[in-house]
Design brief:
Layout: E1 2-3, E2 12-13, E3 29-38, E4 48-54, E5 69-73, E6 87-90, E7 104-110, E8 113-115, E9 122-124, H1 126-133, E10 139-146, E11 160-166, H2 171-182, E12 189-195, H3 204-213, E13 217-223, H4 239-243, H5 245-253, E14 257-264, H6 266-278, H7 281-285, E15 288-290, H8 292-295, E16 310-312, E17 316-321
The protein binds adenosine-2'-5'-diphosphate.
The site of adenosine-2'-5'-diphosphate (A2P) has 15 residues, from strand 12 and helix 6.
């Protein structure tokens, strides 16, 4: 159970009780890949794949929610001859799974392809490439689920939502969006998705279609290395708070809005700054408790100030990584 530090809006945000580590990484169980498809545009420089996994032979059926992660243990051994360690992948399917029965879940995996700066050699991420290479019918070893904090509230109809994602940080929001829309909730939902190029946007056609079919869902993109379709120059997700002020401020200022942030750790600071620059009084305090001094020079905030001079309240839920 979580409680807000602000007097405004819902006094507490109750998250659902979820099961964790039904299968430990030390005792993984077999599951079967049933679908594996590209979810970027074909021209994208990176490769991100939507991988569906049948967990029907495990105890995890119906127990995996978007915002939780699945553990995958790649085959083989590491350079020291030890079995590979578990890697966690964020679940992108809704609570009902891809199949409606919680038996087929999805993860959204980016192939790690890099160059070692010490010797100019190609580096291929072990687990991401292992998983992206699996074909339908292939067996993999899994564990989980993991995570209990980055979830939709138990009564998710009582809130409105601002989702900010960069890259594969979109994964939980795909599942959460389906959960929300299928429950016929009237919640307002805004998804702001950031990617380097338009071709890197994930599940883009799906989100466009959902926005067309559901009045309460708004989908906004922020492309960091290209001009936007709407004429704006290069943007990060947080810049959309400013460029889409008219649409977003009424939602952000609302007393029942929760902000979810998933993706690169760098974006949290930028989002906090844009909130502080565009909201004030109670509307801001419901998300951020800021020292008076900090508020006098918002543009100079740095990451070290987070949780010290700038403290997010329970109304901001974050899952970020370096
Ligand atoms: P850029 O790399 O152009 O600086 P991906 O995971 O596919 O690489 O996408 C991550 C996206 O997040 C990119 O568009 C990247 O922009 C952007 N990004 C990088 N740093 C930040 C930051 N501090 N705040 C918001 N977005 C960021």
């Amino acid at each position: 159970m979580m409680s807000t530090a602000t007097a405004r809006g819902p006094s507490e945000i109750v998250l659902p009780e979820v099961k964790m580590n039904i299968h430990l990484p030390t005792k993984p169980v077999p599951a079967v890949v049933v679908r594996n498809e590209l979810c970027t545009f074909k021209k994208a420089a990176g490769f991100v794949r939507h991988v569906e996994i049948d967990i029907g032979g495990t105890q995890m059926i119906g127990e995996c929610r978007p915002g939780q992660a699945l553990g995958v243990i790649p085959e083989g051994t590491d350079k020291n001859g030890k079995p590979h360690k578990v890697r966690l992948y964020s679940i992108s399917s809704p609570t009902r799974g891809e199949d409606g029965k919680g038996k087929v879940i999805a993860v959204t995996v980016k192939r790690t392809i890099d160059e070692h700066w010490e010797n100019n050699k190609l580096f291929l991420g072990v687990a991401s490439n292992y998983l992206c290479d699996r074909q339908p019918g292939d067996r993999i070893m899994v564990s989980g689920p993991n995570g209990k904090r980055f979830l939709l509230p138990k009564d998710h109809t009582g809130y409105d939502y601002m989702f900010f994602a960069t890259g594969t940080g979109i994964a939980p929001f795909r599942g959460m969006l389906i959960d929300l829309l299928e429950s016929r909730s009237q919640s307002k939902i805004v998804l702001v998705m950031g990617a380097p190029y338009t071709t890197d946007l994930l599940y883009h056609d799906y989100f466009l279609r959902m926005a067309g079919e559901n009045k309460n869902f708004t989908y906004i993109t922020a492309i960091s290395r290209e001009k936007q379709n709407d004429g704006h120059d290069r943007l990060y997700v947080q810049d959309r708070v400013r460029t889409e002020r008219d649409r977003l401020l009424p939602i952000l200022a609302g007393p029942r809005t929760l902000i979810y942030i998933c993706g690169l750790a760098g974006m949290e600071l930028g989002i906090f700054q844009e909130l502080a620059l565009n909201l004030n009084g109670e509307a801001l305090e419901q998300y951020l408790e800021c020292d008076r001094e900090a508020l006098s020079d918002i543009r100079r905030w740095n990451r070290q100030m987070i949780h010290k001079q700038v403290r997010p309240t329970r109304r901001i839920l974050m899952e970020v990584y370096a």
